[in-house]
Backbone:
């Protein structure tokens, strides 16, 4: 019995870690992406990026849980992130589809996290290998924010 545990526990740990690092959720969960209905043309690519790469945390009810959510603590950690993100910086369907404007403050915060590479968070990228922003994603964000800022000049 003792020997079984001595070998069994390390094997179990290694297998668990390997499973955790494998971003299964990317492969299985294909999201339903909606095209923007309004807003500037520059919003379109950004909306699709956000629906793919930010929605898990920033839209309540859109989280696609990974299979390891049933591991001890995993679901709690994910839910804490989702609560934090979706309450502080909600990307609502109306905003993502161009039916309602992002506020200037929101635009400026989005600009900051895109520039700094803070979002999506590192731990999320570790488990979702295709969640990082590419050069062209970044450019789409900066083009969009610039266009929004231009279009609101003179407005209060
Ligand atoms: C793994 C979950 C997760 C993902 C994915 C994620 N975020 Fe966040 N985000 C958070 C959390 C948690 C916070 C609040 C705490 C913080 O600021 O670190 C946050 C905060 C923010 C803020 C507010 C920062 C501030 O200064 O108040 C912005 C803007 C933001 N996220 C943008 C994005 C964008 C854009 C994406 C996609 C490219 C994204 N996030 C993807 C979890 C996430």
Residues:
């Amino acid at each position: 019995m003792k020997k079984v545990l001595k070998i069994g526990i390390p094997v179990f740990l290694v297998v668990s870690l390997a499973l955790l690092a494998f971003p299964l959720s990317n492969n299985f969960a294909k999201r339903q992406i909606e095209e923007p209905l309004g807003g500037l043309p520059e919003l379109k690519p950004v909306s699709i990026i956000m629906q793919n790469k930010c929605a898990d945390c920033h839209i309540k009810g859109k989280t696609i849980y990974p299979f390891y959510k049933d591991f001890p603590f995993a679901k709690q950690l994910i839910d804490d992130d989702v609560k934090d993100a979706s309450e502080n910086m909600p990307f609502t369907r109306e905003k993502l589809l161009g039916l309602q404007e992002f506020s200037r403050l929101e635009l400026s915060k989005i600009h900051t996290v895109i520039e700094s590479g803070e979002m999506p968070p590192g731990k999320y990228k570790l488990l979702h290998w295709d969640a990082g922003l590419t050069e062209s994603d970044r450019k789409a964000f900066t083009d969009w924010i610039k266009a929004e800022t231009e279009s609101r000049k003179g407005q209060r």
Q: What stands out?
A: The first helix runs from residue 2 to 21. The mean pLDDT is 88.
